[in-house]
Amino acid sequence: MVKRSLPKGVHRVRRKLKCGAKYHFYAWRGGPKFWEAVIPYPVEPEFFQAFSACTAPQKSSANLVDDLVTDFLSSDAMPPRARSRKDVELWVKRFQDEFGSDPTAMFEEAASRAELNTWRKRWINSPKQYDMAGTHAVKLLNWAVGEGRLKEHYCHKLKKLYVADRSEIVWTPADIKAFNKVAPQWVQRILMLGCETGLRVSDLVEVRKDHFEDTAHGKRLRFKTGKRGRVAYIPVTNGLQSLLDATPESQETLLVGQLGDPLQSRWASNQITKWRREAKVSSWEDGREKTLADTRGTAATRLLNADLSLRQIATLMGWSVRYAAQVIEIYARVSPDESDLVLARLEAAKARTQQL
């Protein structure tokens, strides 16, 4: 049997029809279509002539994805924080490894959506990574459209698999007590600051003493959050005040490492994980382990007890009012020592919210 092949670089797509199938031939993946046939390997001279007529000159002048990625990585579209930049670079370079030699114009074709989904299926067994691949690819393509490098693209609103709902996971007073029995003092401070403020991990390590200011009724923490760039006003609870009082005068940030050096957010999270395991803090009912990020539910309850409204708590946390109430109710359910007081305050807060 004669072995047949296509000219190097030709991209063939099979389309199903009611009467059978038809093959579409493109000069390269994402390139112009130059031929249609009902057989997978055309042999007529016109096929090869059509391929020659539309390849070399066009491909050599095409704007390649390689160039697009290089320009994107050096643009002001890159996030300012080192951790975020590292994440973007990782995924955009993976995208470059796959599509770098292709022309950017391929993403102006509807078929490119399937190409992109096929690529990110490499991470189908890790829903979070599968979603990240699509998110950063779309971020790059959106930038290309905004810069006039593409007219449009067909990769908007890609399907996502990862569902991040940890609302029911909270640190109870018993968890915190067990943790503090074994963790070093500098690690206890990380957990306490998370439980008293509800700030994200990346923001916790940035809190300084000069972020605190006096008010008519006490003190508050005035902090511009990193993710949304909003200014958060957090009342100083008793726990937060004790943390502030115990901070040495020579120490600018509230959180430092064992040797007094500045903390990185990932290191802070890892320390909570390490000492939580040492303390044998129980996992949630479904086996998920508690993390530093899960202190936000505890913090929401602290803020409710500090007389913040549900609307204020929701704004601070980036939640809906309904979600904030749900998280606080879960906290009360798993913290029997505080449940009656918390639930009473929660019902009063709901009533005030409904009257607005």
TrEMBL record:
Every Tyr recombinase domain range: 166-344
Pfam families in alphabetical order: Phage_integrase
A biological process term (GO) from this entry: DNA recombination
SUPFAM superfamilies linked: DNA breaking-rejoining enzymes
A molecular function GO annotation: DNA binding
Superkingdom of origin: Bacteria
Keywords of the record: DNA integration, DNA recombination
Residue runs in coiled coils: none
PANTHER family: PHAGE INTEGRASE-RELATED, PROPHAGE INTEGRASE INTD-RELATED
Protein name (Swiss-Prot/TrEMBL): Tyrosine-type recombinase/integrase
Protein species of origin: Falsirhodobacter algicola
